[in-house]
Amino acid sequence: MRQDVEQIINKTKIDETKLPEAMRIIDRAASIMEECDYDTDPKAKEELIALQNELRELTGKENYDIEEANEYWSYTSLETKAAEALMQEPFRVGLPEEALRELITEIFRSGDLEKEALIDFWTDFLEIETGIDEIMDYLFTENDKGKIAYAPVDEVMERIRKEKALAEENVILL
Q1: What is the CB neighbour count within 10 angstroms for residue 162?
Q2: CA–CA dist 33, 24 (Å, integer)
Q3: Helical spans, DSSP H, in the chain
Q4: Is 36 left (phi over 0), alpha (psi -120 to 50) or beta?
Q5: 3 state SS of 149
Q6: How far, in Å, CA of 61 to CA of 57, rounded?
Q7: What pTM value is reported for the model?
Q8: d(CA 46, CA 173)
Q9: How far is CA 131 from CA 21, 24, 40, 54, in A?
C-alpha cells in the first residue's frame, strides 16, 4: 500500500480507550440540553461549558461545539457520536489519481462505508479531496437485481475524471 494512502487511513483510527469517556461526556451534555433551558439556566450553561471543555481536551479539537451532541439519539448512536468526536476532521491531501484509486479500493475492501462514523468521514474527505459534491453517488451503483453495491473502482475513477473535466470546462467558460 502506498505510504500516503496508509497515512490517510491511519488518521481515521481513534483511541478506543477514550471512547467510554467521550460517550459519558456526550451523553451527559445531551441530557442537560434535553432537560434544561441552558440558554436561561446559568447552572446548566456552566455545566455544558465544562463538558465541552472536557471533550475538547479529550479529543484535541479546540473548536468542538458540544451542541453537536444535542439529541444525537434521533439520528445516530452514542458510540457513533463519540467516535466522530474522537476522529480527526477530514482534510485535503492533493492525492494523485493512482493514490486516490488505491484509497477508494481500500475503503471498499475495509467495509468502512458500512460504519456510520466512517462513512461521514470518508464522504467529507472525498468531497474535499475531489471537489465533487455528493461523491457517494459516484461510489455506489445499482445492480441488475436492484441491489445497491459498490461501483467498480474503474467506473468510480471515470466518473470522477468526467466530473472534474466538466468543472474545469465550466470554469473556463466563466
Answers
A1: 11
A2: 14
A3: 3-10, 19-35, 42-59, 78-86, 97-110, 116-130, 136-139, 153-173
A4: beta
A5: strand
A6: 7
A7: 0.83
A8: 53
A9: 35, 36, 41, 34
Distance between CA atoms of residues 64 and 78, nearest Å: 16
Contact 133, 127 (CB under 8 A): yes
Angle at 150 between CA 110 and CA 15, to 5 degrees: 25
Task: Kindly give, in sequence order, each residue whose CB lies less than 8 Å from that of residue 19, ignoring residues fewer than 6 positions away.
Answer: 79, 82, 83, 86
Within 10 angstroms of residue 160's Cβ, the number of other Cβ atoms is: 22
pLDDT band for position 13 (cuts 50, 70, 90):
very high
Instruction: Fill in the amino acid letter for 22.
Output: A
The phi and psi torsions of 140 (rounded to 5 degrees) equal -120, 155
Alpha-carbon distance of 90 to 80, in angstroms, equals 16
Which grid coordinates belong to 161?
A: 475524471
Give the pLDDT confidence of 75-118 residue by residue, as tens digits. 999 999 999 999 999 999 999 999 999 999 999 999 999 899 89
- The string over 91-122, giving b where at least 16 C-beta atoms fall within 10 Å of a residue's C-beta and e elsewhere, is eebebeeebbbbbbbbbbeeebbeebbbbbbb
Any idea how long the chain is? Answer: 174
* 22 vs 69: CA distance, rounded Å: 11
